[in-house]
Amino acid sequence: MEAGGYRRQQMVTNTMLIIEGTSDTRNGNLRQGFHKLLGQKLKGKMPRIVMGDGKHQAIKKFRTINNDRDPMLLIDLDEKENLRFDDLKKNNLSNESEMVFYMIQEMEAWFLSQPEILDDYYSGTISKKIPKGLARDISNPSDLLYKITKSKKKKKYHKVVHAVDLLQKLDATKLMVDFEDFNRLIETLNN
User: Are 111 and 170 in contact (CB under 8 A)?
Assistant: First the structure.
């Protein structure tokens, strides 16, 4: 077993993926959750995953990585998909746009897009409380997830504790269909 409590099952490439999310593992290891999710599609091409903490800290880490590591960045857009180019410009990432990928609007939209995993995880019918339509169009998906889970046995959604488990339950193939940037990330990492 490796540090972090999971086995290394795939060769790590020279590529580094910096992901917005806490690097503090006291409440759970987000890196492990992302590793399991990406591992569904990246047979033998797993990047080195680095948790970048907040969005601005992740962008700073992305900028300071030596180019021989082929850095990529996965961050929340916190906006609708059509504002992606505005966010790239605002964060001075326009020149690296090919290596920047967004969780639209937040990682929690991924969970809301697969309500069956929420029903299973929270032992209930949370899916009935999710608005109809595309999960990527939900403003503040994390706020919605807090709200619809506040009375559940496992307590309300926690951005790290529960996210680690939920990331591992996501179907990467469905995410690739529902989220263009996730699809682009997987395709880029596989090439």
Answer: yes
Backbone angles phi, psi at 111, to 5 degrees: -65, -45
Name 92's Cβ contacts closer than 8 Å, sequence gap at least 6.
none
User: What's the rounded Cα separation, in Å, for the pair 171 and 133?
Assistant: 19
How confident is the prediction along the chain (191 residues), in pLDDT tens digits per residue? 344 444 444 455 678 999 999 999 988 899 999 999 999 999 888 999 999 999 999 999 998 886 666 799 999 999 999 999 999 999 999 999 999 999 999 999 999 999 999 999 988 788 899 999 889 999 999 999 999 998 766 688 888 989 999 999 999 999 999 999 999 999 999 98
